Amino acid sequence: MINENLMNSFPALKRSRAGKRPVYLDNACMTLRPIQVIRAMEEYYTQFPACASRSTHWFAGEVNERVEESYKQIAKFTGAKENELVFLKNATEALNLVANSIQKFTSETRKIVVITDKEHSSNTIPWYKLEAKGIIKLVILETKRDGTFDFEKFVDFMKNYGDKVILVSTVWVSNLDSVKFPIEEIIEIAKKYGALTMIDAAQALPHIPVNFENLGADFMAFSTHKMVGPAGGFLIVKEELMEQLEQLSTGGGTVEDFNTKRNIQFFKGRARLEAGLQDYAAIIGSAAAANFLKEVGLKNIEEHEKELTAYALELLGKIEDIGILGPKDPEKASGIVTFYIKKPAVSVEERDVGEAMSDKYNVMVRTGRFCVYNWFNAKGFPTFFTPIRASFYLYNTKEDVEVLAEAVKEAVDKVKWMPTVDVNGW
Amino acid sequence: MELKDLRDEVKRLFKEIFSSGVPPHIGKLEGATHSIGAAACPDGTDNVAFYAIVENDVVEDITYECGNCDPYMFVAADSIVKLSKGKTLDEISKISAEDVLNFINCPDEILYNHTTEALKILKKMLVLDQQGESR
Fold first, then answer.
1. Most exposed of A112, B68, B99, B115 (fewest Cβ within 10 Å)?
2. Of A248, A280, A295, which residue is a domain's last?
């Protein structure tokens, strides 16, 4: 049960347009921010807007303290050690940091990286580039048509090639349909064959309880702007692997000393990987976000989203000519409902059905392929269907779901005259 | 553009495209020698892709894909593909939007604009410049 007072903490939800409130259902892209996070960041800018880890004056002392404390709080929230955190721009940068470093881990006999066809482009394109350079061999495991992980196929692959695999890198909760991969089992199998593991936790960490230490993964990436925090992200790295990561950028804040003879003494730990002055407001805001979510309770968020998902599936299921992507079971996938209208063209009045729903109902969803192009292409999903993604979070309500259903019904009614198209069962 | 502005004739042509399910000339073309995907409208919302097999300067086969398109672009792309199949590159270079609309007997201004944009993309794919020379 979500405390209503906490739900009322979001200033953006108090806005109104044409007498209607916002129905924000684009949380898989970016979440709204509560006043607690905004105030924490505001405090930095109004009270001690100085550098950390460099100067020794009054404001610097306060920043140092707050930033160090923030890392501790984020570590606690994620179940990681404080010195396992690296602050970056976003989960994309976090995933790229590991990809950029993979040569430090590969050998002649071990250079296969395993991903799935349901990965976000941020966990796909970096590997494509490395494969093109001959640095790795990339294996893309096909997921099932219902979007679930094909565990038997994975086990079979690892049985035959596991000793050649250097890294298994997969999403935990899909941004397409919130299907949860069996991440603990995946990590266990990977470890059995001596492979490293990386988890894209961008859609997991904000929605379900996560403990990095218990998971046993080697790397985990997440974005703070998907967990009511400011724009930013973290890579969590097992302590013993930190020094093997290659810098994405270097210079200020990463070096202890250097001279004209080109001798460089880099700092150890995250300082070596966090080049330049950091977004201290974002680090402090991220901790405030973590504390906010702790107060709400991740279990409560998970249950709340299951209810909303079940309700959305129920209401959308009553609308003719709607196809749902992913399993229709909130136990297997909750928080996101992605669907499409089974008509070849759904943009008639407005250019995009999402735009139409926003204009009339203030319903804010995402349309397109959500950076998961591989899955749509691999499954032969017709290009003329427009997937529509409604992603829920702790501040969404059953009323939001009802407005969504009303908007979708109207969009379908507008194109009723068009032939209903069924392509390969889609 | 309101739904009521969609001419009955365009609606009919659009429905005809799908009268027996998805026709074989919609979708990727295996073995295509040419392909192009581009946004076809000035506001960048219709995404049309063409695929063609060209042998000895003749378009032996051609298909299209429409993503986030309105019915006008479907009718435009569909008509272009039907008109182009079996023609030489030289013949295709001379096809105008008027030719396409005459082919389907539907002189509609909005359809004309969509057809003009789609033709530009097709001709770019086939490397046909304005003088109709194949490069």
1. B99
2. A295
Are A220 and A353 contained in the same domain? Answer: no
Single residue among A236, A264, A295 that ends a domain in this structure: A295
Q: Is A388 exposed, middle or buried (0-12, 13-18, 19+ CB in 10 A)?
A: buried
- Interchain contact, A422 vs B69, CB within 8 Å: no
pLDDT at position A211: 97
- CB atoms inside a 10 Å sphere around CB B23: 15
The per-residue pLDDT for range A390-418, each reduced to its tens digit, is: 999 999 999 999 999 999 999 999 888 88
Residue pointed to by tokens 């988890």: A199
Residue A371 falls in the annotated catalytic set: yes
For residues A288 and A301, state if they share a domain: no
Query: Residue B28: CA atoms inside 13 Å, Cβ hemisphere, count?
Result: 9
Using one digit for the tens of pLDDT, what is the confidence trace for A197-221?
A: 999 999 999 999 999 999 999 999 9
CB-based contact, A321 to chain B, within 8 Å = no
Report the predicted TM-score, pTM, of the whole model to 2 decimal places: 0.92
Phi-psi bin for A182: left (phi > 0), alpha (psi -120 to 50), beta? beta
Binary contact (A419, B15; C-beta < 8 A): yes
Which one, of A77, A115, A117, A90, lies nearest residue A29 by Cα? A90
Look up the ipTM and state it.
0.81
CATH class of B7-124: alpha beta
Please name the residue of chain B whose CA is at the shortest distance from the CA of residue A351.
B45
B134 CA: distance to closest CA in chain A (Å): 30
Count structural domains, chain A.
Answer: 2
